[in-house]
């Protein structure tokens, strides 16, 4: 990850952590809705889900939130988002192309259809990890009458793997591990703060008295 992308991610995480700190009792609901929207056909293209899920990872790594409640909220949201998209495609079928955003951008459905025809049932699993295809393949699978059992199997399996992978960049940042080093298994050297001091990190707004350390 280059410096510009990393800074964008960190800035977004700082804003979201402040928002969650102000609404700490609703944290799990916020994460559920985020993952649900990120996976939903109609809004997944515009929701900053990647940043918010990374923020969840950072808050878990800092001890501000427990892993399992965050993980379950995110996984349930992801599964339900895909399931709603699938059933919308299954029920409305040919009417989907005239609904926003597909009416303005028909290439989205075309791309999802090509991917589904190429990979079949595996496309639901694979698309979870491919940002541009994540919101569109489930609705395409419904339109093409993919068997419900096969769809839900791929939906569940992909969600339980996808959530920790999406949390990993936030965990890495909170632990002072560079994202590239996290992927390679090497420990990063603590970074100098953007304030120019010698401390390895600066503190984002705390939740329940626990600071989120972001370098």
UniProtKB/TrEMBL annotation:
Residues 47-168 form the VTT domain. It comes from the Bacteria. The keyword Isomerase does not apply. Keywords: Cell membrane, Membrane, Transmembrane, Transmembrane helix. Signal peptide: none annotated. It is a multi-pass membrane protein. Coiled coil: none annotated. It is found in: Cell membrane. The chain crosses the membrane at residues 29-53, 65-88, 153-174. It holds the Pfam family VTT_dom. Belongs to the DedA family. PANTHER family: INNER MEMBRANE PROTEIN DEDA-RELATED, INNER MEMBRANE PROTEIN YABI. This is DedA family protein.
